[in-house]
Specification:
The chain is an alpha/beta fold. It is 43% helix and 8% strand. It is built from 23 helices and 11 strands. Strands 1-3-2-4-5 form a 5-stranded mixed β-sheet. A 4-stranded mixed β-sheet has the order 7-6-8-9, sandwiched between helices. Strands 10-11 form a two-stranded antiparallel ribbon. The radius of gyration is 33 Å and the shape is elongated.
Length: 625
């Protein structure tokens, strides 16, 4: 049964949900239908993983998350390694950055990406899965999958002939005497802590004529009988009792699997569950074109208001809203960050009013707020706020669209790029007039990242990097330079990473083309020496309010996308026009002024006309005989 969003969104009241942000997102796909995994959506996840005849391991990821990009090759290898284990356990993935999947990921209590959850076979719809907390390495997750597969057998959740219990000498005798259904018997000798035997047993479930069993190193009788010298070792026993060792130099899972597949005379056909077939059909229909889609990459050297506003929209409506309840230090971090935005964000007055409204709905007298109330407040903060043309609209764009932060593919850049741009803009524009020190600005950024940036590894790196701010930053200028240095450190670490856009390689910013004077003459790209005094002035200009570009949308675009207010130094304080308060737009005011001037001119003209006419009458009267 497909998940019903209002029903799963952690008890949100329907009136709140009706106001919930309906963001039309479509990020890039990290996985394709060619990968050996089931790709889930909001409409298919429940019918696939709940009340299933097999166990499931599901990756909840976000396609904008850099660490998810780095983790994707591991998940693909995992799915490929476990492709023959489907009778006991399946591999799946779901993209939480997709608008249609947001409520689903909240339902499963996903607060960071990537998150891996295990679901037992026959798990009811109320089961939210067990989060994997071990090392997210290929072997770490494979070993956990083996444990879960073994548990399904132990609990009787899955009927299978597979038996993970190590054998005794009697089992070999039964095989030689023809008392088993196997044509040949493979024995994997291993130490008790080894996983290779169980892994190969799962691989070879597809070969009913080939028995694969474990023998522990402490079974002295069988170890001596087959002259085992090293562990692990692979022995194949024939019906006549003769045997042959297949493990010589290479004693790995892959080599054992390859050797046994050559002995497999008949492969049992696998039948895909109809729910899985339906899920993959839907995925291909939704993403078939996206897998091949390319888009025009933005110019990363520019600062666009479109990127800043789209980033704010995604941040406030999606990232913050992943938590069922925001409480304690999280609440304070959110309140402080939105308060800083209200003071320093160099945007349109209408958006400034929204940020002020939202900040007012997070009073210091409280220590927590539920997700439902928070989302309601985000919507209410935008109610009755008029844009420059006088029309009611959501000042936060409903459709996230990137300009300079647009990657060469949808999965590149995007939100993380906009976040860095926002942070640089805040360090530059939060001057002393806003009563925030440079340390205040960076501390509020750090705490927001700590609690509300969903990419787990990125969050850890940033909070670790900023752990000593109080000793490193003592002024606004130092704050601007600290964030610039930190960003370049991140760029250096991620250069060549899976998350890097090939059309936008990670460089040391600013480039030589953008600011040649910022670099000490003679320094190369691999060991840049900076003239920090020049860099500081460059950053102030680059991220200053006068350099933020207003990209005009097409004439027929939605009102919420229209950048009708000019970004200027006057907009930094977000002063709300008195005309808007009384319901007049600037166009109305201009018309009134023109009309008033016309009336005044007409009155003056009539006055002059009557004065002259009167004087003429007086003259005629005086000269009349």
């Amino acid at each position: 049964k497909p998940l019903d969003r209002p029903a799963i969104a952690l008890g949100l009241q329907s009136n709140f949900m009706s106001l919930q942000y309906n963001q039309r997102l479509s990020y890039g796909v990290l996985y394709s239908s060619a990968d050996q995994m089931v790709l889930l959506e909001n409409d298919t996840i429940s019918s696939v993983i709940h009340n299933s005849p097999s166990a499931w391991v599901v990756e909840f990821y976000s396609s904008f998350c850099g660490h998810c990009h780095a983790f994707a090759p591991t998940w693909k290898k995992l799915a490929k390694m476990a492709k023959d284990w489907k009778q006991l356990i399946h591999v799946a993935a779901i993209d939480c950055a997709e608008e249609r999947n947001l409520a689903t990921c909240v339902h499963y209590q996903i607060e960071g990406y990537p998150s891996v959850k295990f679901f037992n076979a026959s798990a009811p719809s109320s089961n939210l899965g067990k989060t994997f907390t071990g090392e997210r390495t290929l072997l770490g997750i494979i070993h956990e999958m083996v444990k879960v597969a073994e548990l399904q057998k132990t609990l009787g959740l899955i009927r299978t002939d597979l038996d993970f219990v190590p054998i005794r000498k009697e089992f070999v005798s039964s095989f030689v005497e023809g008392k088993t259904s196997y044509d040949e018997l493979a024995l994997i000798f291993e130490v008790p802590t080894s996983y290779i035997g169980r892994e190969v047993m799962l691989d070879m479930m597809k070969c009913p004529g080939l028995g694969v069993r474990r023998v522990l190193s402490r079974n002295k009788f069988l170890v001596e009988k087959y002259a085992i010298k090293k562990f692990p070792s692979l022995i194949v026993v024939h019906r006549r009792g003769t045997f042959k060792e297949l493990s010589h130099d290479e004693k790995t899972h892959a080599s054992y699997k390859k050797s046994l597949e050559e002995l497999c005379l008949g492969v049992k056909p696998s039948v895909e569950l109809p729910e899985i077939t339906e899920a993959m059909t839907l995925y291909k229909r939704l993403h078939g074109k996206a897998e091949k889609r390319k888009q025009e990459a933005g110019s990363s050297s520019e600062v666009y208001m479109q990127d800043l506003e789209s980033g704010l929209s995604f941040m406030l409506n999606v990232e913050v809203a992943t938590k069922p309840i925001i409480q304690g230090d999280e609440y304070l971090a959110l309140r402080n960050f939105i308060g800083m935005l209200a003071k320093c964000f160099p945007g349109r007055p209408s958006l400034g009013q929204v940020l002020n409204n939202l900040h007012a709905k997070l009073p210091l007298t409280r220590t927590n707020i539920f997700r439902s109330e928070y989302l309601y407040n985000v919507q209410r903060s935008q109610a009755n706020v008029k844009l420059d043309g006088g029309s009611n609209a959501h000042p936060l764009p409903k459709k996230v669209k990137w300009a300079a932060c647009s990657g060469s593919k949808p999965e590149y850049r995007g939100y993380p790029c906009s976040l860095w741009t926002l942070f640089h803009t805040l360090t530059v524009n939060c001057g002393s007039s806003h009563q925030l020190t440079g340390l205040d600005v960076l501390s509020r950024i750090r705490e927001f990242i700590r609690y509300f940036f969903s990419c787990e590894e990125c969050r850890k790196h940033f909070t670790a990097m900023s752990s000593n701010l109080s000793n490193e930053v003592h002024s606004h200028n130092e704050a601007i330079l600290w964030l610039w240095r930190g960003h370049n450190k991140v760029n250096d670490r991620l250069a060549g990473d899976q998350s890097e856009d090939p059309k936008h390689p990670k460089i040391q910013f600013p480039s030589k083309d953008l600011c040649e004077e910022c670099r000490v003459p003679g320094s190369d790209d691999h060991n840049v020496q900076w003239n920090e005094a020049v860099v500081l002035e460059f950053l102030k200009n680059h991220y200053g309010v006068d350099n933020i570009r207003i990209k005009k949308p097409p004439a027929r675009s939605a009102p919420e996308l229209e950048d009708t207010d000019i970004v200027s130094k006057h907009s930094k304080r977000h002063s709300v026009s008195h005309l808007s308060i009384i319901g007049l737009s600037s166009i109305d005011a201009s018309m009134c002024l023109i009309l008033y001037s016309a009336i005044a001119f007409a009155v003056i003209a009539l006055y002059i006309y009557f004065i002259r006419r009167r004087r003429r009458i007086v003259r005629l009267h005086v000269h009349t005989p």
